Amino acid sequence: MNPRSDIHDRLAISLRDTRRARGLSLDAVAKLSGVSRSMVSQIERGESSPTVATLWNLTQALQVDFAGLLEGRAPAVIEVTRAKAAPVMQRGPGVKIRILSPPESVGAHEVYDLEFTEGAVLASEAHGIGCREHLTVIHGHLRLRSGDEAEVLGPGDVARYAADRAHEIGAEGGPARAILIVQGS
Fold first, then answer.
1. Which of 9, 16, 87, 100 sits CB 3.0–4.6 Å from 111 for a disulfide?
2. Which domains does the chain show, CATH number per domain?
């Protein structure tokens, strides 16, 4: 078998397996990618070689990269980041931030696990216009300020607020922990 047909076969199988793993029909992929249903089907059966533009549209619709398709890696249905593997940042004294969201979601939908020692504060400048944050307190109490507004939150409380202005989160009366979701930045 020559290298071209090997790549051709791997691409066909990988596209089909990825589409199925995502639970998408041929019609759904066609609609998402702008590639006709019949062309998607022909590519998956190995009867047609896609152009770079067609392949790009399909990878974007399926949310996979070229390399993964050509290497024949099966798409992960369940992606796991083990606790010890999650990136951790220290922001100032007493604030530990564990990044829970995948790198490709930066700027669109970010998720963080925040840990504060008593009195620690996480201060942020304004993010992009329209950015919002959702803060859920897991343990302890947090003082939240967004612009001129302020609230004290306890375990189980959820605050949604504008983050396109200066804002800060600080531990109130002891250590605290929270989950922070940032939408748009």
1. 100
2. 3-71 (1.10.260.40), 83-183 (2.60.120.10)
